[in-house]
């Protein structure tokens, strides 16, 4: 299944006059506020969000999994699915692989497939939260933090192997999420677990190529329910500071305790120059259950306000950070869901770019709380979707990615090609 440019153009033509009307109306409104919408559109065009290989199939819960059909059965098909997304929105130009779920048999052929779809390889992810077939030692009681040096060695070697796979594909970063921790008080010595993890991470760090980064992801709980070795941004930052300049903190939206002020965490990490980037998702309760922006769009916007501010302060372009979706759930078509997630990210980014920073700072300096809130909420309440659509159209994408996905019956085509009952590899 491939989407041709003429199909996108034809579909765009059929809705262009309506879109132009909405865009002109918004341009006028923004013009009155001295906001240059072309600058925002250009920023949106440059913003790329990586797609994780594990989000392309229907996720499951521990109670069950309901296959949606037509899911990718191989790494090639995963790359092809991301190619479909990127053709539609031109904003999903890379894929993040998880080893050993996604072992490339032949790097050259998978690279040439990715090139043909205008895709790059984003961070590679290691997996020491599951035991693999024929593995010598079990990760039941931890991996990089394990009390037994032989288990730690195995986990370190796995991470170094992941770097090798990534190198062959042109990735530039290793992403580490550790499930290590304990389920009951007394089970683990916190300090020993930290120090073992640090030593293991130092060995992995030493194996990083010169132009690589390692992203250290934190998560408060699950699968361990009493303590997690890298439980919060503070622990993650501590590891990164001890490791060196090639290690940065990765923020996954779903990995915080309830009501955490994530935007403040982001501001602090950016102030220290240690934000690697994001795993975007949303949740009512925890982890990565739901589509980005589906529950707390205002929080997402406030995070982007800090991101925009932090990038400006550090004089760093958006593409020097790692932006990725990390969500996987049970009831939607995964590709439609990813299109919704990318759109939600771009909407929040566009809204954050509307904020008048000078006015906001003035209001803050004068302790004008009402005005400060109003400046943010004016931006948040602006319907910026015409800007997002225009940025996709200008890059050769669709004005209405989900509409076109449905018109072209992409899922049916994939089911015809791959079968109605499929299990995406790795999930
Ligand atoms: C587990 O919580 C998790 O969702 C982490 O967010 C990782 O980034 C992802 O799995 C892949 O290992
Ligand atoms: Mn994550
Ligand atoms: Mn997660």
Automatic annotation (TrEMBL):
Claim: Metal-binding is one of the keywords in the record: yes
Domain Xylose isomerase-like TIM barrel: residue ranges: 137-289
Keywords carried by this UniProt record: Isomerase, Manganese, Metal-binding
Pfam family, one: AP_endonuc_2
InterPro entries named in the record: L-rhamnose_isomerase, Xyl_isomerase-like_sf, Xyl_isomerase-like_TIM-brl
Metal-binding in keyword set: yes
Gene3D superfamilies linked: Divalent-metal-dependent TIM barrel enzymes
Protein name: TIM barrel protein
UniProt source species: Dyadobacter chenhuakuii
